[in-house]
TrEMBL record:
Protein's name in the database: Hemin-degrading factor
Species classification: Bacteria, Pseudomonadati, Bacteroidota, Flavobacteriia, Flavobacteriales
Coiled coil feature spans: none
Organism for this UniProt entry: Salibacter halophilus
Domain Haemin-degrading HemS/ChuX: residue ranges: 31-159, 212-343
Gene Ontology BP terms: iron ion transport
Pfam families: HemS
Signal peptide: none
Entry superkingdom: Bacteria
InterPro entries given in the database record: Heme_Transport_Util_sf (IPR053733), HemS/ChuX_dom (IPR007845)
């Protein structure tokens, strides 16, 4: 394995040959993780923070308006706003529930935190970045021109780790669990459980009960239109129709440690190379269409009526983004959302 000094030199050399290369892509090219690469800058423009994640997050509101970033390999979700209404007293899960920043946090995999300053001479970006035990980024918080930089500096100093190590030890990535064979699934019980759901959140428990992978469950859905497979361009269509019809939507993007949610209308769409983007003032979404394999319409019964989602998957059958119509418990799903989903389904359904 590379020493830190060697890795640092390799990164510098790579940047010289590929100016503007993002750290995530540089890490991939160098065969290391983003956290390991970032650690080589500790003592310069990166500060290692104590792994007191709940305490740090509890003080993020003091920074004012920031930009929250959560991503996986295929989709990047960026939302500007304030971190309000935290629930962080549980060591395993946490919440922020605000109109702008809306997060579901899973702390089991969290291990590293850094304060990072990126300055290319034209623009300085300051952030707090959190990483999982395998070195993958789970969440990043960037200052905006409306943030309180003094509060940021105080936060960094308060949680600065005593030992500013320029190398870290990451754990191997977990092997993906082998999917249970279809013929070992109690299909009748699973399908009955699906049709009798009364809350969308209970779907995860249903999958766990039957030891089902997410996409496997969609393949084995009850008869009818509970799960309908579509080509990946359904993603573009659903966003285009939401813009055209001024339909407020919910966009969920997650990884092992975080789910980030946007709720509201989307206005500006932009296609650039393989990336399909939402480029609104306070919400940006970047979808690498080359990494998407298919999209599914998924319907689940609830006490408020049927709830309809678009779920999108990569080649590894990981769910990378979900779309819903704007809704809250106790309020039926938007009829305008159901209408555009039906249109998209008829246009992009795979036989």
């Amino acid at each position: 394995m590379n020493t830190t000094a060697t890795l640092k030199d390799q990164w510098k050399e790579l940047i010289q040959t590929e100016p503007g290369l993002r750290i995530r892509n540089a890490a991939s090219k160098l065969g290391v993780t983003e956290a390991e690469l970032l650690a080589t800058r500790v003592g310069e423009d990166v500060t290692l923070l104590k792994p007191e994640f709940q305490d740090i997050l509890n003080e993020i509101e003091s920074l004012g308006k920031v930009m929250a970033l959560t991503r996986n390999n295929e989709v990047v979700h960026e939302r500007k706003g304030e971190y309000l209404n935290p629930t962080l007293d549980n060591p395993h899960v946490g919440l922020f529930v605000g109109d702008d920043i809306d997060l579901r946090i899973f702390f089991a995999s969290w291990k590293f935190a850094f304060a990072v300053t990126d300055d290319n001479g034209r623009m300085k970006r300051q952030s707090i970045q959190f990483f999982a035990n395998d070195g993958e980024a789970v969440h990043k918080i960037y200052l905006t021109d409306k943030s309180d930089e003094n509060a940021y500096q105080k936060l960094v100093e308060k949680y600065r780790a005593k030992d500013q190590e320029s190398s870290i030890v990451v754990e191997p990535k977990k092997e993906k669990e082998v999917e249970k064979p279809d013929n070992e699934i109690d299909l009748a019980s699973f399908r009955k459980g699906w049709t009798e759901l009364n809350d969308t959140h209970h779907f995860f428990g249903l999958l766990k009960k039957h030891n089902l992978a997410r996409k496997q469950a969609l393949r084995l859905a009850p008869e009818g239109n509970y799960a309908v497979k579509m080509d990946k361009d359904a993603i573009k269509s659903i966003l285009q129709k939401a813009v055209k019809n001024n339909v407020s939507i919910m966009v969920f993007v997650g990884n092992k440690g975080m789910i980030q949610i946007h709720t509201g209308e989307v206005k500006k769409l932009l296609e650039r190379g393989p990336w399909y983007n939402v480029m609104d003032p306070d919400f940006n979404l970047h979808i690498n269409m080359d990494g998407i394999v298919d999209a599914w319409v998924v319907r689940k019964p609830t006490e408020d009526g049927m709830v309809t989602a678009i779920e999108c998957f990569n080649k590894d059958e990981d769910q990378v983004v979900q779309f819903f119509g704007k809704r809250k418990p106790g309020i039926p799903e938007l009829e305008s959302w159901r209408e555009i989903v039906s249109e998209v389904e008829s246009e992009h359904k795979l036989s």
